[in-house]
Amino acid sequence: MSEPLLDIEDLVVTYGAGDTAKVALDHVSLRLEKGQFTAVVGESGSGKTTLANVVVGLLPESAHTHATTAVLDGHGILGLSERQWSGLRGSTVGLVPQDPGASLNPVRTIGAQLAEVFELRNLKLSRSEVRRRSIELLEQVEIDNPERRLRQYPGELSGGMRQRVLIAIAFGLNPKLLVADEPTSALDVTVQSQVLRVLDRLVAEHGTTVLFVTHDIGVATDHASRIVVMRDGRVVEQGDVESVVTEPRSEYTRTLIGRIREVTPPAPLPTRTDSDEVVRVSAITKEFRVKGRIVHRAVDGVDLSVRRGETVALVGESGSGKSTTAKMIIGLTTPTGGTVEVLGRNVARLGHRERRHHWREVQFVYQNPDSALDPRWSIRQILDEPLRSFGIGDAALRKQRIEQALGSVNLPAGSLDKYAAELSGGQRQRVAIARALVVRPEIVILDEPLSALDVVTQDQIIALLIDLQRNLDLTYLFISHDLAVVRQISHRVAVLRSGRLVEFGDTQRVFDEPSSEYTRNLIDSVPGQRFRSSLLVGA
Amino acid sequence: MSESTSERIVVDPEVSEDRAGVLGVVRGLPLPVLLSASLLVVVVLWTLVPGLFTSFDPLTGNHVDKFQPPSWEHWFGTDHLGRDVLTRVVHGTSQTVLTAGIAVAVGLVIGSVIGILAGVSGPVVDAVGMRISDVLLALPGFLVSIWIVTAYGAGRLSVGIGVGIGSIAIFARVFRAEVLRVRALDYVEAAFLSGASRWAVIRKHILPNAVGAVVALAVIDLSAAILAIAALGYLGYSAPPPTPEWGLLVAEGRNYIATAWWLTTLPGIVILLVIIALGVVSRRLLAANRI
């Protein structure tokens, strides 16, 4: 075995001191051989970012570290001064940060920020030589028209391009170890796959060792040769990628792997008559006035229908108009053109009284349960509000309905007197679902209801939603960017791209033989392709 | 379906504190906050029952005892008429603090009304409200108070209103900003979708969640008002001389500063400490509201 580039043994990191101290890493050991691509997988709070920060020396001052060994390329890395770290950073260890929006200086051009790379390496190059090498760096990360990009500011580039510039900067210093902390989690899937392809190629060309931090096991298995699964500050398991995928040793890893396994979507409901269409959207458009006369068309001629008792998924990348479409269906936004008909009523023409009636039948669940529940209200008050406002029942009946709704989302009756802050993210999302259900609506619009939750909780909420649909004969309009989830839950899928409907059909058909190039591309960009076929055999 | 370990219950320290009773809260506070809060309690007592703290008369003194330096009998010494300075500080509290209270009340009430209306109404009311606050911001506050006191006399009410006008705009702005922040949150939209009327959403969701910052601002503003009133008193724009008032005390001592340092210094320190205490307490309030 060759000498490891990074060797950490029994690393303990705690934040704060005394009673409030929080253990972020609990006896973690990690060895990186030269040239290995290692992915650290874990949900938020698992300590994966703390681990990355130890390696690049970016821990906050409130952190206390202790380890039996912590050696990076022959240097001990605990208790180094800032000056010693700047000797290591760049040449020995480089970082690709998480948020490409916040990691480039917005008031300096791309060219100026790339030129810093050569200054740091003390190369004393002429101006034209710096320019030539900067263009070379941008070409390496496949940015088109590099001469022009050098003069542009970060704000003029897209997120994917900014992330590629950051990768170019990191590789410009040619570090032995590259630490990438969730480099693509702010990007759409198609952009993510392009960026990661560039990263893969550069890593292979330079022979760089990589420590790749991600929450997405699919991304990890697609690119890494070794996988470290973390949870609650501990390493749950580690090993080479094949053995982790095919024979996961822990229950937790098995749940994560379940995500990339191909699932059979629910069979489409038998086609019934047209009267079963509870939502009928025809040719709706929504225009926003941007600056003065410039008009931005967020939704452009979308036709949709949702039948009673089915789940229709609305899929698209950010800016595709899926949330705007949902807001028009529930009647919070009026369409510029076209009609939205819900349960036989034209939503745009509802009077005040009818609109309240409409909201009794169509309810909404928000993406982020933290902001969807009033922090000053107890769960009982939150669930009571819709009943009171709609004037449903007397006190006794309301109490019964609240308890029923709480029971249907599997929360204990004891949670009624708690406040949102006392519940976990998953429990909060259950309360939000209960609030939508307490008025017994026919249709529930779910706007990315899982994206703020970790994988284990996501699985529980998906199971809950499927259960509820079966028992209460609910109709769901499910908005998501996560195709793996969509495949699990929806009968039909509508794919939106920059406001236009590019595809609408039964889930199985759309996934197997998409009719548009864009959908094909979207499906192929979903992480976790590498082991999908072998998992099918194993399953 | 069973709850897995990842769904553990997160107990918010703030919330549990609310439940633990007064003693628990007091024990959990850092020392500066405790000291500041106790000083403020003392100031409130000075305002309500000044007689409990001193046995001297604030208005008449003994000529024999004039210009006594601080001692066990006269903690803050005596002034040029032989009056006990501590007694005058204690009795002056009500003049200064109550006037400051009126000032804050004027700013808080009028500012809140403008701010809330601007925050919850449409763009026209918002523009009108904000232009009114622009006008108020453009006026130099101290000059306005001097003008009002000169025109309407140095009564508690006119000094209070004069100082309070300056803070209307700030209250209006902060309240509007908070209302707009809360209004954009999902739970407000969810309340509308739950069938709640506009007024119910404003009253039950928006105002309770927006008011925290305004309360903290009121505490900060109280210290600014005390300072402004003391400054007015120093310049002579307050109750006429025999009445004790903090700014007036400092002003009177000015004539004898070379021989009797305690006349200006000790009342000045009291003003300073009260203002610092208000700052510390308001910062704690802000933190508790997570702003």
Automatic annotation (TrEMBL), chain A:
Q: Which family does it belong to?
A: Belongs to the ABC transporter superfamily.
Q: One Pfam family name from the record?
A: ABC_tran
SMART domains per the record?
Answer: AAA
The protein's superkingdom reads Bacteria
Q: Name one GO biological process term.
A: peptide transport
- According to its UniProt entry, this protein's organism is Rhodococcus rhodochrous
Write down the Gene3D superfamilies for this protein, in alphabetical order. Answer: P-loop containing nucleotide triphosphate hydrolases
Record keywords, A-Z: ATP-binding, Nucleotide-binding, Transport
Q: What is this protein called?
A: ABC transporter ATP-binding protein
Q: Matching SUPFAM superfamilies, A to Z?
A: P-loop containing nucleoside triphosphate hydrolases
Specify whether Transport is a keyword of the entry. yes
Which residues does the UniProt record annotate as the domain ABC transporter? Answer: 6-257, 279-523
Q: Which GO terms describe its molecular function?
A: ATP binding; ATP hydrolysis activity
Automatic annotation (TrEMBL), chain B:
Where is each ABC transmembrane type-1 domain found?
93-282
Q: Does the keyword Magnesium apply?
A: no
Topology class, membrane: Multi-pass membrane protein
Q: Where in the cell is it found?
A: Cell membrane
Instruction: Enumerate the UniProt keywords alphabetically.
Output: Cell membrane, Membrane, Transmembrane, Transmembrane helix, Transport
Spell out where the chain crosses the membrane. 29-49, 97-120, 132-151, 157-175, 210-236, 256-281
InterPro entries, sorted: BP-dependent_transpt_permease (IPR050366), MetI-like (IPR000515), MetI-like_sf (IPR035906)
GO-annotated biological processes: transmembrane transport
Please give the superkingdom of this protein's source.
Bacteria
Query: What Gene3D superfamilies would the database entry show?
Result: MetI-like
Q: Which residues form a coiled coil?
A: none
Major place of residence: membrane
Per its record, how is this protein called by name?
ABC transporter permease
